[in-house]
Design a protein that fits this description.
This protein is an all-alpha fold. It is built from 19 helices and no strands. The structure holds phenylalanine. Phenylalanine binds next to helix 1, helix 2, helix 11 and helix 15.
Length: 453
């Protein structure tokens, strides 16, 4: 093989730092905002089981492949794919897989930042104590009136995008790594408190039942695809975010162990979010399938009622903001790494350019809740389309291609050397899953969703 590459962007200080950063990327709005509301839209337990199966059979194996490619290529996903395909004697067009990831990253960040903006707004509401005195109806109205106000949505979207650009501008170690170390554990603890509160309400049993009892009749073909899409979205897979983080991973770190810990942490946080939210939905007679506003209308009710709700409420939205922040930086990083490598642009400027592109795309999402809400395609608004196309199409497609590239096209020698698992049973199982189970799973779910099988 070619001699070991070095990343020009630096490296994580340790394996642990990588785990924190990648977990920071994985754990975000996807777990706490998107997982509960999508679960609600697709009917609960059966969706959750399908989601868990996707994480285990498709997500974890593909995450290993993605980290592995990243560490071997040690560049932005575009250049990594181009170097690896050259090294393996494959078609250079594989670099377009990197480009697809960059595009997906921009599209995701564009609406992600708008939702993170809601979180910012809710920090102000929670800390002002307004949830303490509001009725359930007024809490719902707070959310609706935010959505009706394009100026406010745009302001918060802009603020969040600026926060993202600042951290990415600071670079791998001083920016990305520092941000995640304390915030993730704090978020976890606060989520535990929320689950504790949910347990004390009389909706807990119903919430548990809803989340874990699989009623397969409720799960449509569309629901299967949504579960797959959610697995990719939540684990940050299929667009190069994990690949670029892998490119900063020290050579001696074990890819298998780190990947499993990241996926496990991500899944635990999603389930905890479900456990914190669904009991409240039932205790207060709310609608599980109410869509993207779900956590913004359920949790404030809880904060209004629980002791020290003002403190916990503020803390919760602050930590959610940080969780979103550590994810959004990974959405921007692949594009920024490429701008630095190929255009010779200094990192701060590259971050600003990339951030501006995502910000501009996000204006459509801002408007889709108010002025543009009637402009629809297949009954979906601009925001819905961005979310649907990225989660349900681009990410699984990216993952499929990553699996094919790794398990079918790369030389076994290269894979074995980079993964460092040896060639024993664990390796064999992984290879089998990435060769057959994951790609076939993605294809079958796609075809099923469009009604072909
Ligand atoms: N995984 C992140 C979340 O759950 C979102 C994300 C998707 C980040 C894809 C990077 C890449 O919030």
């Amino acid at each position: 093989m070619a001699e070991k590459r070095q990343s020009i962007h630096g490296q994580w200080s340790s394996r642990w730092a990588f785990i924190m950063a990648a977990t920071g990327s994985a754990v975000g709005l996807g777990n706490i905002w998107r997982f509960p509301y999508i679960t609600g839209e697709y009917g609960g337990g059966a969706f959750v089981l399908m989601y868990l199966a996707c994480v285990l059979l498709v997500g974890i194996p593909i995450m290993m492949a993605e980290v592995m490619l990243g560490r071997r290529g040690r560049q932005s996903p575009i250049n990594t794919m181009s170097s690896l395909s050259k090294e393996e004697g494959l078609n250079p067009a594989w670099r377009y897989l990197g480009w697809m990831g960059v595009v997906a990253g921009f599209l995701i960040l564009s609406f992600y930042s708008v939702v993170a903006g809601w979180t910012l707004e809710y920090i102000f509401h929670a800390s002002s104590g307004s949830f303490l005195t509001a009725t359930d109806g007024e809490i719902g109205e707070t959310f609706d009136s935010l959505l009706r106000d394009p100026g406010q949505l745009l302001a918060m979207h802009t603020l969040f995008m600026a926060l993202t650009v600042v951290v990415v501008a600071m670079g791998v170690r001083s920016g990305l790594e520092r941000a995640v170390k304390f915030l993730m554990p704090a978020l976890f603890i606060l989520l535990l408190i929320m689950v504790g509160y949910a347990m004390s309400t009389d909706g807990f049993q119903e919430g548990l039942y809803y989340l874990f009892y699989p009623d397969w009749s409720k799960l449509s073909a569309e629901g299967f695809l949504a579960a797959l899409g959610q697995a990719f979205f939540s684990l940050s897979l299929g667009m190069g975010a994990i690949m670029v983080y892998g490119s900063y991973l020290p050579d001696d770190a074990s890819i298998g162990h780190t990947t499993v810990s990241i996926a496990l942490a991500d899944t635990v946080v999603a389930i905890m979010a479900g456990l914190a939210i669904f009991p409240l939905v039932f205790a207060y007679g709310l609608e599980a399938g109410s869509g993207p506003g779900l956590i913004f209308v359920t949790l404030p009710i809880a904060f209004g009622q629980m002791p020290y709700g003002q403190v916990f409420g503020t803390g919760f939205f602050v930590l959610l903001l940080f969780a979103a922040w550590t994810s959004s930086i990974s959405l921007l990083e692949p594009a920024v790494a490429w701008l630095v490598e190929n255009r010779g642009i200094a990192r701060p400027k590259a971050a600003a350019i990339a951030g501006l592109i995502a910000w501009t795309l996000g204006i459509g999402s801002v408007l889709s809740f108010n002025l543009w809400q009637d402009y629809r395609l297949f009954d979906k608004t601009y925001f819905d389309i961005m979310d649907y196309v990225t989660s349900n199409i681009l990410l699984p497609l990216g993952g499929l291609l990553i699996a094919v590239f790794t398990a079918w096209l790369m030389s076994r020698k290269a894979i074995v050397a980079e993964l460092g698992l040896g060639e024993g049973l664990v390796f064999q199982v992984w290879l089998f899953v990435v060769r057959f189970v994951a790609p076939v799973g993605v294809v079958v779910i796609f075809l099923h969703a469009i009604g072909i099988i």
